[in-house]
């Protein structure tokens, strides 16, 4: 039996669901029950009716699903599927900054560890970051771990945004060369890119925002300035339109550790179960659920 069919059969027998991030390989996106950006997947994970959630994404996404679904088993197919950006921020660093800026609220991008989230007032994604910041009474916001997303938020609010830490970034979104990006189509840029790249975009949007932009546009050709497999997601949804990756080598290695082979193994052997320390999970859950209420 073909691997895709074997996965489907096993998934049905186990009452499992596969959630895949937009940066997953094309064949993984093809077998997913639901594809989306971090916010869409967090919402889906909360409302899903399944005994097992297989998370085709990176560690912080699977942790988020486990935190908001304590009664379901969340599986991640590869332990190597990690996010380099999340590693910029420890819980201890957040506590240090909180002491230095006691008047500030802490807003953490979901691309952070559960330990860091436990120290946050609220989480956000690239889709709702400005809305989350505007929902808070505080005028000073500690925002991390992505300094580029922090600068994007700063461009859209009068509040004072302090990046936490100032060096936090995503190596994929900072790998573009502004002069090499093709200009022959509508340019859609992810807000994790640095300001000089965002400036050339016809739109700056999360991956979910890019899907909506394309859906509502009459344009036929788009240049996609984010992880390369976002083009796979858009091609699956809009086969009549043309999508060009801004750079072929903009690849998130953590995301590519998930394959059809290890998804099958994950279902068959029920591994790797995502576990979060209960105290950390409880505190992180408050910050995540507060975000889901706002957005
Ligand atoms: S693309 Fe960047 S921020 Fe997104 S998961 Fe990969 S390393 Fe993390």
Give structural notes.
This protein is α/β, with parallel strands linked by helices. It has three domains: 3-82 and 255-276, NadA-like (Rossmann fold); 85-169, Rossmann fold (3-Layer(aba) Sandwich), CATH 3.40.50; 178-251, NadA-like (Rossmann fold), CATH 3.40.50. The chain is built from 14 helices and twelve strands. The chain has helices at 3-14, 26-31, 38-47, 59-68, 91-100, 114-117, 129-134, 147-154, 195-198, 207-215, 230-237, 253-256, 260-269, 278-294; strands spanning 16-21, 34-36, 52-56, 73-75, 105-109, 122-124, 140-144, 160-163, 186-189, 203-204, 221-225, 242-245. A four-stranded parallel sheet has the order 2-1-3-4, sandwiched between helices. The chain has a four-stranded parallel sheet with strand order 6-5-7-8, with helices on both faces. A four-stranded parallel sheet has the order 10-9-11-12, covered by helices on one side. Helix 1 (3-14) runs parallel beside helix 13. The termini are far apart. Iron/sulfur cluster (SF4) binds next to helix 12.
Write the layout of secondary structure elements.
Layout (H helix, E strand, L loop, with lengths): L2 H12 L1 E6 L4 H6 L2 E3 L1 H10 L4 E5 L2 H10 L4 E3 L15 H10 L4 E5 L4 H4 L4 E3 L4 H6 L5 E5 L2 H8 L5 E4 L22 E4 L5 H4 L4 E2 L2 H9 L5 E5 L4 H8 L4 E4 L7 H4 L3 H10 L8 H17 L1
Parallel strand pairs: 1-2, 1-3, 3-4, 5-6, 5-7, 7-8, 9-10, 9-11, 11-12
Bound molecules: iron/sulfur cluster.
């Amino acid at each position: 039996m073909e691997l895709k069919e074997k996965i489907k059969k096993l998934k049905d027998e186990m009452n499992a669901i596969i959630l895949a991030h937009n940066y997953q390989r094309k064949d993984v996106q093809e077998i997913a029950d639901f594809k989306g950006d971090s916010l869409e997947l967090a919402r889906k994970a909360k409302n899903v009716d399944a005994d097992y959630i297989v998370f085709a994404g990176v560690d912080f996404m699977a942790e988020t699903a486990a935190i908001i679904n304590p009664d379901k088993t969340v599986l991640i197919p590869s332990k190597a599927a990690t996010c380099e950006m999340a590693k910029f921020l420890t819980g201890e660093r957040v506590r240090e900054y909180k002491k230095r800026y006691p008047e500030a609220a802490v807003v953490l991008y979901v691309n952070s560890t559960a330990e860091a989230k436990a120290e946050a007032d609220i989480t956000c994604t690239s889709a709702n970051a400005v809305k989350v910041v505007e929902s808070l009474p505080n005028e000073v916001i500690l925002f991390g771990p992505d300094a580029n997303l922090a600068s994007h938020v700063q461009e859209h609010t009068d509040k004072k945004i302090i990046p936490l830490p100032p060096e936090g970034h995503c190596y994929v979104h900072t790998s573009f060369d502004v002069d090499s990006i093709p200009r022959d189509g509508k340019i859609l840029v992810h807000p994790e890119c640095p300001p000089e790249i965002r400036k050339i975009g016809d739109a700056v949007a999360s991956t979910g925002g890019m899907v909506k932009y394309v859906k509502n546009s009459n344009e036929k050709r788009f240049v996609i300035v984010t992880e390369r497999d976002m083009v796979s997601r858009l091609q699956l949804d809009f086969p009549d339109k043309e999508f060009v990756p801004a750079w072929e080598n903009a690849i998130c290695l953590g995301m590519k550790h998930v394959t059809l082979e290890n998804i099958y193994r994950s279902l068959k052997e029920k591994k790797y179960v995502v576990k979060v320390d209960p105290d950390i999970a409880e505190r992180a859950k408050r910050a995540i659920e507060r975000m889901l209420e706002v957005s």
